[in-house]
Design brief:
GO terms for molecular function: palmitoleyl hydrolase activity. This protein is α/β, with parallel strands linked by helices and 389 residues long. It has helices at residues 26-35, 97-109, 126-144, 180-191, 197-200, 214-217, 234-239, 251-267, 300-316, 356-362, 367-374, 378-387; strands at residues 3-5, 12-17, 69-73, 118-124, 151-157, 225-228, 232-233, 273-276, 280-281, 294-295, 298-299, 328-330, 345-346, 353-354. Helix 2 (97-109) crosses helix 3 and helix 11 packs across helix 12.
Length: 389
């Protein structure tokens, strides 16, 4: 099932794929069913939902998409939107993420999607990875149905994971402790997960799990995709076993976190349209504060608007990029929350808001030592930190 807000005058459609991790064997799927039933069954879903962020119909919360047709597709397949297997004797659960998207498209064509000019397939977290896995398939499906005129695009939020080495290696017991590559490797078999043909061809048989990682699938995609990714993504840190509890982080963790930012920045350098703030967070496009975050003075809604225009222009005459309308925005400062527009951080135990300096101290950041390394006075470094330079 899905939620729909029609906007009769508009020929723009936004389909949003919800996120929420995944499960990859009988045991952790049973646990998920007991503890997070709404992510596995539609039985108790509410009759209506309120759209927020890019799904809001308020222009002040959603400056460029507020009057589009909005579709929210809840996540009940637990398979990163990749599965194509029905329930069987062998398998207690059905995993049909890829098929759900196809069915929703089929049904929407009769509800006005057939006359659309633009279809933006968006998603956050597992839904963001789901965008990368499904955007080309949606375009092919519409072409096969005779709707060649619809421009299909993707917007992947917080779904660009790295298959890096964990900070501390752990055995693959559940979704949280399992290294990302191992979890996906097991999951793909369990779900009968499918990946796009063009990506599959890049890897040996049995290595399809590679296509779940943004930097490996992105070069194979035909549809334009805009990538939104925090440089210090909390879900990434969780699977990498960096747990930021109330204790100050050790130096090893601190270096690991900084290195993660560097690695992520590196994987985005050839991504045409991207927005990557140096913040510690997860998911953004459906948050109502999504208009506040800026990279180099440009907000995310503005960058998406610029991207829209650049695609519109390139369809016409392949002109140079628009002046003063950037679409490749990646923070260059090196540690979490060095960008002053990052979302507020709260102490996990007291719930108190923290400013950047309190947060860095809390993380075990040694101002004296760091100032020495940078050849600065400690007070000068503090000034730079609080202004976000």
């Amino acid at each position: 099932s899905y939620y729909l807000k029609e906007s009769k005058g508009s020929r723009r459609w936004l389909l949003f794929l919800e996120g929420g991790w995944y499960c990859f064997n009988r045991e952790n799927c049973d646990t998920r069913y007991d503890t997070m039933r709404r992510l596995m069954s539609s039985r108790e879903w509410p009759a209506t939902r309120v759209g927020t962020g890019i799904l809001s119909s308020q222009p002040e919360e959603n400056p460029h998409w507020w009057n589009a047709n909005m579709v929210f597709i809840p996540y009940c397949s637990s398979d990163v939107w990749s599965g194509a297997s029905s329930k069987s004797e062998k398998n207690e659960y059905a995993f049909m993420g890829a098929l759900i998207i196809q069915e929703v498209i089929k049904e929407l064509v009769g509800k006005g999607l057939g006359t659309a000019k633009v279809l933006l397939l968006a998603g956050s977290s597992a839904g963001g990875t789901g965008v990368l896995l499904n955007v080309d398939r949606v375009a092919e499906q519409l072409e096969e149905m005779g709707y060649q005129g619809i421009q299909v695009r993707g917007l992947a939020d917080s779904g660009w994971f790295l298959d890096n080495k964990q900070y501390r290696r752990t055995d693959c017991i559940d979704t949280i402790t399992c290294a990302p590559t191992e979890a996906i490797r097991r999951g793909i078999r369990y779900w009968n997960g499918i990946v796009p043909e063009r990506c599959k061809l890049q890897f040996k048989e049995g290595e399809e799990w590679n296509c779940f990682f943004g930097y490996k699938i992105y070069p194979t995609l035909r549809c334009p995709v805009f990538v939104v990714q925090w440089l210090f993504d909390e879900a990434q840190l969780t699977v990498d076993n960096v747990h930021l509890t109330g204790q100050p982080v050790q130096e090893g963790q601190w270096l690991y976190i900084q290195n993660l930012g560097r690695e992520l920045r590196n994987t985005l350098k050839d991504v045409t349209a991207s927005f990557a703030p140096a913040c510690l967070s997860h998911e953004i496009i459906t948050r109502n504060h999504w208009t506040d975050i800026q990279v180099k003075g440009t907000s995310l809604p503005r960058a998406l608007h610029c991207w829209d225009r650049s695609l519109h222009e390139s369809n016409k005459n392949g002109k140079a990029p628009l002046k003063g309308c950037p679409i490749h925005l990646i923070d260059s400062c090196p540690w979490p929350h060095c960008n002053p527009s990052c979302p507020t951080i709260r102490d996990q135990f007291t719930g108190q808001e923290m400013n950047v300096i309190q947060f860095l101290m809390h993380m075990g950041f040694d101002v004296q030592k760091m100032a020495q390394q940078q050849g600065l006075e400690p007070s000068k470094l503090l000034g730079m930190l609080s202004s976000g330079n």
